[in-house]
Amino acid sequence: MAAIELTGLTKRFDDVVAVDDLDLTIEDGEIFGFLGPNGAGKSTTIDILLDFIRPTEGTATVVGHDAQAESLAVRQRIGVLPDAYHTYDRLTGRQHVEFVVESKATEAETDVDALLERVGILEAADRKSGGYSKGMRQRLVLAMALVGDPDLLILDEPSTGLDPNGAREMREIIQQENERGTTVFFSSHIMEQVEAICDRVAIINRGRLVAVDTVDGLRGSTEIGTTLHVSTAGVDEAALETVRGFDGVAGVSVDGERLRVTLSGGGPLKFEVLKALDGAGVSIEDFEIEESSLEDLFVRYTTDEQEVRA
Ligand SMILES: Nc1ncnc2c1ncn2[C@@H]1O[C@H](COP(=O)(O)OP(=O)(O)OP(=O)(O)O)[C@@H](O)[C@H]1O
């Protein structure tokens, strides 16, 4: 069963199309990154999953239940860290978590202290949350999301307000939860974090899906996937023609004795190119492989139109 299934999902706010005919499937057990520039439609999509807003067209199924018609059943099985969550200033951290334990009516006993410890705010558990810093509030909301050992975590920019240590801890908690069998769907603008932990990512732009794949797969679908820098003792036109003839070689340029070959995708192609240069009599003195970062790919996919590649 898919953890999340979106079919033709569309949301219009008057003349703004926030989400435009989105088809997307998140499989059970995945850590899935949901990326897009500001205003791309990420929060709107997440708000539909949580039944905070209703779609104009299309359907969203979450853990096997319709997100609108069966939102209560969905709520019982997921943990949520929404965008702009407001904590109650006069309640303590512990009271917030206890409130979720009661409202979720989970069968399993919840060790509230252990949860607060896990997110690093046990020491502040009995202080009113009004005095918490932004990062402490974010940690508290995460503890609330983890109540009841959910099957699916939906996190809207979970690292907002966290210091570098907090962001790393957030990443570790996401990975630990995933190892325990929880599917994680999260939006983020922190590309290193996404690249480090996601099995797959989707990139949306102006409400439309422009790419969905593994990060390696995305590299394979753009001509900026990998760049090979080769220092040679000299290279002739015939050798260059051999390299240009490779399927997947997007560009070849020469600067003196240095060769720069751009490849769409990673994989064995870079080594085949090196072998071909050697075979063409080019003496290779050194080489360097430069893989595009997810940030490069993000910029590539969101600054001009690309077809969806599954
Ligand atoms: N309640 C609303 N009324 C009118 N327009 C809205 C509303 N909510 C969102 N929008 C519009 O829908 C589009 C998508 O917004 P959304 O908040 O989903 O983007 P996002 O990808 O989450 O952006 P960010 O990265 O900045 O959080 C934007 O053009 C936004 O202005």
Automatic annotation (TrEMBL):
* Keywords, alphabetical: ATP-binding, Nucleotide-binding, Transport
One of the Pfam families matching this protein, by short name = DrrA1-3_C
Q: Where is the ABC transporter domain?
A: 4-231
Q: Which SUPFAM superfamilies match?
A: P-loop containing nucleoside triphosphate hydrolases (SSF52540)
Gene3D superfamilies according to UniProt: P-loop containing nucleotide triphosphate hydrolases
Which family is this sequence assigned to?
A: Belongs to the ABC transporter superfamily.
Taxonomy of origin reads:
Archaea, Methanobacteriati, Methanobacteriota, Stenosarchaea group, Halobacteria
Q: What is this protein called?
A: ABC transporter ATP-binding protein
What start-end ranges are recorded for coiled-coil regions in this protein?
Answer: none
